[in-house]
Specification:
Chain lengths: 256, 202
Amino acid sequence: MQVKTHHETEAIVLRTYDYGDYDRVVRLFTRHFGKIAGMAKGARNSRRRFPGTLEPWCLSRVSFIQTTPEKLVFLERCEPIDYFSELRRDPVKTMYAARIGEMVDTFSPERKKNEELFDTFSCFLSMLNEKGAEEASLIGFEMRVLACVGYAPALDRCLSCQKGVEEGKSFFFVAEVGGIKCDQCISPRDSSPIRVNRGTIKALLFTITCPIDKIGRMRLTFRSLKEGRLLVDTFIRHLLGRNLRTARVLEQMEPR
Amino acid sequence: MKTYPQPLQKLIKELARFPGIGEKTAARLANFILHESEEEAKSLAFAIIEVKEKIKLCRICYNLAEGPICSVCADAKRDRGVICVVEDPDSLMAIEETNDFNGVYHVLHGSFSPLDGVGPEDLRLKELLTRVEEGPVKEVIVATHPTTQGEATAVLIGKSLKEKGVKVTRIALGVPVGGDLRYMDRLTLGKALSFRRSVDEG
Ligand SMILES: [Zn+2]
Ligand SMILES: [Zn+2]
C-alpha cells in the first residue's frame, strides 16, 4: 500500500510548465524540503486553490501530498503570502528575479533542505519588489547564493602564499582554483586570470558574511561593478561548464 | 523498440520528438500509421510538407500567411490605426473569433522570458516600433497572456513606445493569474478587449 504524507511549508515558485489542457507542473523552492516539483491539478482554471500563486517568484504557503519520495508531489493549495507584483512591472526587476531564481534552481539539488538559501532568496525578492533594481546588490546576492550552496570562492587570502587581502593592492581571480592569487604568485600557467582590486574583493567578501538584509545596501564603484560581474560570471561558467540562460538576456538589458 | 523493423523505429523516433509525446505514445501512433491505407499515409505526409512549404510569416505583422501578407493585413476594411500585439498566432485566432476587433495585429512570436533566455532583442519589438513610426497608428493594444512573462512583455512594449505619440493600452484581464488567452471564452475575451487600461510605463 502507498503511504501518503501530508505536508505544509512556505514556497517560492521557480518555474512552471503547462501540462495537458488544465494542469500545471510547478518547480518550487520550499523552506522545509528544498527544491521540489509538484503537479497542480486543474491549476489553469481553479482560482480558488491557486489564486494566481503559481507564477514565478510568488511566495505562498503550500500544502501538498507526497506518495513516493522520488515522484512529483500533488499540490493541494497555495495561499498567497506575497505576489511581489512589482517584479512584473519593471523588465529590469523581472530580469534580476529571473537571474537569482535560475541560480537557486540550478545550484540546489532536489529535496535538500537549505533554509539559509530560502531566506536569502525571499529577502532578495522582497527587497527587489520594494526598492529599485541595483546591479551591485544583484552581484551581492549572486555571491551569497553561491555561498549558501557551498560554492563561495576563496577571496580572503592568496591561495598560494596565504597573504591576506589587506596586505596587497591587486589580486587575480582564477576560476580553476576557485579563489584569488596575489600579483607575486600569479603565473602564466594560471588560465584566464581576472584582475580584481582590493576594494572589489572586500565588497564581495562582505556579501558572503554580512547579515542578508545588508547585502542590498552595498554600493560598488563602476570599476568594482565590472570586476565583480566578470568574476561571478566566469566562476559560474566554470562551475557549470556553461552560461546561465539568463546571461544573454542580462547582456541585452545592460544600460548602454 | 529494438525489435521493431528499422523503418518503424525511425518513424517512432521522429514522432517522439513532439511535445508531450513519449516513446510509448509514439509507438502507438506509428503503428496506427502502419495500419492505415497507403492513400491516408501519403495524405498525412503531404500535409506536413505543404505546411512547411506554403505557410510563411506575414511580412507586415508576422501572422501565419499563405502569401507574402496574411488575410488580415490584406483586408482593406481593417482599421490600420489600431494594432493589437499578441504573443502567438493562436492568440490572434482567439481574438479573431470574438468578432470584436477590427484593427490589425502584430505577432511577437514569444514573450520576454529571461528564464528561457529570451530577451527584448529576441522578440519582434523593433519591427513593431518601425510600424508605429511609419504608419498612421493611433493605438497599440497589448494582448499578451495574463502571466508573469506576458505582463513583463506588456511593460516592455509600453516603455519602448513611450514618446512615440501613440496610446498604449492593455486588455483588461485583472491580475496576472497564469491564464491563457487561448482558453478564454469568447465573451470574456471580448469584454477584456473593450475594457482596456493604459499601460503605465513606470
Ligand atoms: Zn601570493
Ligand atoms: Zn499580416
